[in-house]
Amino acid sequence: MASAWRRVADAYQRIVDNGDKRTDPWPLVYSPIPVTVIFLVYLCGIWVGPHLMKHRKPVDLRVFLIIYNFAMVGLSAYMFYEFLVTSWLSSYSLLCQPVDYSTSPLALRMARVCWWFFFSKVIELSDTVFFILRKKNNQVTFLHVYHHATMIFNWWAGVKYVAGGQSFFIGLVNTFVHIVMYSYYGLAAIGPHMQKYLWWKKYLTSLQLLQFLLFLLHTGHNLFTECDYPDSMNVVVFGYCVTLIILFSNFYYQSYLSKKK
């Protein structure tokens, strides 16, 4: 038993000691414990929340959701700008870009936007809370929970070990998709009379699928070429994208193709 605990302690020490020294002092980065606690609280909330709301009326969050969703549009736009401009000024390559671990202004600027991208994934866990408070439990699907819960770990690892380099491509594309996505949610929150302007939901799902396909091709290319970027990260992203393509394709089929039949 003691040896097992020793191995766990050694593994934990390796995790915290081998990170990017620039990002280690930043909130939630140094140790995996804070993000794990957030994950466990999130799962508990998903289990407890519907029971607490069972005999209560749905909470009216309309005004709050309008503000929240358009604030997320603003945050996504800021991150998209930072990813785009910083990678451009740093002459990043789309095909192979090692991480710059220096403390140069541009390297730190890229690391900072990677942190904001990670933190935005923590904020986005609120999406699930809002569904539960509004008693929209049918929206809390396996796809929804899996995507939200796993992204915080993926991007914690990204900021902890590879804050920059190839990581920028995922942040750049995903923030663009989230500008579109939260714009849709913000408009939908205004009221039912907006539905006639929201005919493009199917295309939003298509856009989400397209981004995962781009990530798959991007990381797949780097797995089979020489590039000074950790293959372990590419393998994780590649496998993760496969799962998301399967889940989102199923969602697309169930939502748009199956209903037509």
Characterize the structure shown:
The protein has 261 residues and is mainly α. The chain has one domain (22-260). The protein has helices at 2-17, 33-53, 62-89, 105-123, 126-133, 142-161, 167-190, 201-223, 231-260. Helix 2 packs parallel to helix 5 (126-133) and helix 7 (167-190) packs antiparallel against helix 8. The longest helix is centred in the last third of the chain and has 30 residues, at 231-260. It is globular and about 50 Å long. The model has no long low-confidence stretch (mean pLDDT 93).
What does this entry show, briefly?
The protein has 261 residues and is mainly α. It contains 9 helices and no strands.
Structural class: mainly alpha
Round the mean pLDDT to the nearest integer and report it.
93
Strand fraction: under 5%
Please tell me the total number of domains. Answer: 1
Q: Calculate the terminal CA-CA distance, rounded to whole Å.
A: 57 Å
What general outline do the C-alpha atoms trace? Answer: globular
What are the defining features of this structure?
261 residues; 9 helices; mainly alpha
Detail the topology: elements first, then pairings.
Blueprint: H1 2-17, H2 33-53, H3 62-89, H4 105-123, H5 126-133, H6 142-161, H7 167-190, H8 201-223, H9 231-260
Helix pairs in contact: 2-5, 2-6, 3-4, 3-7, 4-6, 6-9, 7-8, 8-9
